[in-house]
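Case study 2.
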Amino acid sequence: MRTSLFFAWMAGFVLIFALASATMAGLAQSDPALPATTDATRLGTAFSYQGRLLQEGAPVTALCDFEFTLWDAATGGGQQGSKQSAAGVSVAQGLFTVDSLDFGDRRFQGESRWLEIGVRCPTASGSFTPLSPRQPLLATPYALSLRPGADIVGNVLDSGADTAVLTVSNTNDAFAPDGAYGLLGSTLSPTGAGVKGTSTAGAGGHFSSVAGFALVAPGPSLIGSRTPQQIGMLRWYDANRLAPSVSVGSAPDHFAFDGDHMWVTNYFTNNLYKIRASDMAIVAIYATVVNPNPIVFDGANLWVASETSGELAKVRASDGVELNRLTLPATSHWGMAFDGESVWVSNTNAGSITKVRASDAQIVGTYPAGNQPHGMAFDGNALWVVNNGDNSVAKFNSSTGALIGSYTVGTGPIGVAFDGANLWVTNSGSGTLSKLRAYDGQLLATCSAGASPFFVAFDGFQIWVTNYTDPGTVTRLQASNCGLQSTLPTGRYPFGVAFDGANVWTADSYSNAVSKH
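Prediction:
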């Protein structure tokens, strides 16, 4: 009996898609009025559905149940989103309305879609009868300008005011959990672009931001993002796999970049090498604290801490003169950070962190941290400290030293870097990276790295991680989604890593050299 059901239908998809008639002519009807929306209300992805149901040629009047599934092919294919059901729908003279079908976000991105419908009348009367064929979803004319690959074009008569063919605006709080981007561009293609702008006048797009980050385009997703120096030297090209290196003192550990020179600490020879970043020429070698490990630049001076003693030295970057040397309350230092006014040092064996005023090298205070604090990073508001002994990273108020929160990461965390929005923590014991949102410490992703990842740097688009192994490697991955991962060779047991604005440097501790990638 139910196998003789057939369906003549029509439907409207709010703003974008409309369903065309199939078995027989659809009933002409205007779209129902849409409720008013406010700035605080998002439209969502649901749409209404109207149709006409006939049984053996006669209009149906009954309470019926419907099932709807979305597919990417007229037959076979893959189902898109979850099944949608509507029970007890009133069908009067064949006409019915289903108020809301919602197959989820990103199901309609310009690809062809088909709707498969099942029905049973009366309601709750048995199994559903599938109606055949599936019905194609067709676009309304103006929606064609929004499908992928379409051009949004227009003529603008500039009368002196700012004008645009397309305007993207966002009034959300910049620290909202959804990211609050007005325009976001990304791509999975290593040669593609997420956002591209061209103009015969020389400027394809103009971006401005009071927060300093107008356009987020992680990875090689913004055409023109490579500097002429990077392109000329092919530093970005994976085929150029032999990174140049220069010999330094014994066991180079960490870097600091002063705008022109890369400074590297040498653990066993107790000195600092000052290397010109442009051509890797060694400019000078200076004696410093015993077993120097972490180093940081404050805009004028270098700060160098000993791994084995309580020594901390302040060194003038222009000529290498040591201005101050002080003794910290504890020994064994693995991490340092500068917050714009003060230098922070992790006291690894003591489970604490010390704050030193940069202007006069005076100790401000020492505060409790977690178990074996290692790497440190400042995010512009708060200080982050990696606690190797309890597999966590802690967030501190940089003004008061008060603990804001502690967040679990992987096994044996050591290094940390800030990418402008998120923190990246190396987990040496699990071969992974933890990506945490700086706003609230939420874990966003756990990404694979090489064996024994130690320290990490951000180059503006990608994350670089040294893998403390022999032979040594450095892993590079896209900051947006951990994609486009590649592993490049470097010297033996690479330790510290740093970015100079054009190239990434690794300290190859057992090769007694530094490499420039």
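Residues 17 and 139 are 4 Å apart (CA to CA).
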